[in-house]
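Entry: Short-chain dehydrogenase/reductase SDR family protein
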Amino acid sequence: MQRFEGQVAVVTGGGRGIGSGIARRLAEEGALVVISDVNGDAAGAVAAEIVTAGGSAIAIAADISQREPCCALIAEAFDQKKRIDILVNNAGINRRGNLLSLSDDEWHASFAVNLDSMFYLCRAAIPHMIEAGGGVIVNTASQWGLHPAPNHIAYNTSKAAVAAFTQNLARDYAPHKIRVNAVCPGEIHTPMLEAGGEAVGTDDRRSRQACSLRPDRKAEGGRRPVAFLASDEAAFMCGSLVEITGAQAVA
Ligand SMILES: NC(=O)c1ccc[n+]([C@@H]2O[C@H](COP(=O)([O-])OP(=O)(O)OC[C@H]3O[C@@H](n4cnc5c(N)ncnc54)[C@H](O)[C@@H]3O)[C@@H](O)[C@H]2O)c1
């Protein structure tokens, strides 16, 4: 399938984890993928791997918690082919803790990376999409934004805001043929999840057992669902919050 032939897709947080899988998938299906990450070397390695495999990708280092790098990223991505068809707002951080244990910095960083970045990136990309007559935005929220796990108040609240942001943006820009949806993954095997297990002193045997549908939980974190949402197959999906959990309950 070459659902994205000729298209330009921007993927934030594409240097590892779920974002690198999304970038590979979009490239396999024909997109020129602009892989962005605060870790420029990691983004470069994923882009090089895609190019070696015969796909098209470039890497751009950017800290998307700040407005200027977001604007520069979209400008550089647009310059590639004078179009931005797909924006995947995937980058995120998980600062664990409750109201009393979190620092002010951890709270603000959670919102800066998880939410403010989307505000800046969408605001930079949407005028190009309007001009082109349409586009697609896929945001990464979380199952925990809808059904909070304990002791993650900053993460969960920022992801709940991502869900609301997604639905608002969808309402406002559907008339311009811009489809905005969010994926809400459950626990997926990535460095973020592994760090969480280490932080609370557990391995993830418990959640493995709880996810009987797909015990490895490697591929379903958003890669194929994001490609689906970005494609014309999802032409009537706009403002949807798509949970990807394998029926695993929040514990
Ligand atoms: N892994 C899970 O279980 C899970 C579940 C639900 C939602 N999510 C969400 O999926 C997304 C990807 O998560 P993951 O598990 O792949 O995480 P990860 O930590 O493995 O990867 C996140 C990537 O984002 C990048 N990043 C972090 N801060 C950045 C910044 N300021 N600017 C640019 N890039 C930055 C990191 O360098 C990293 O490459 C996140 O939004 C996360 O909240 C993950």
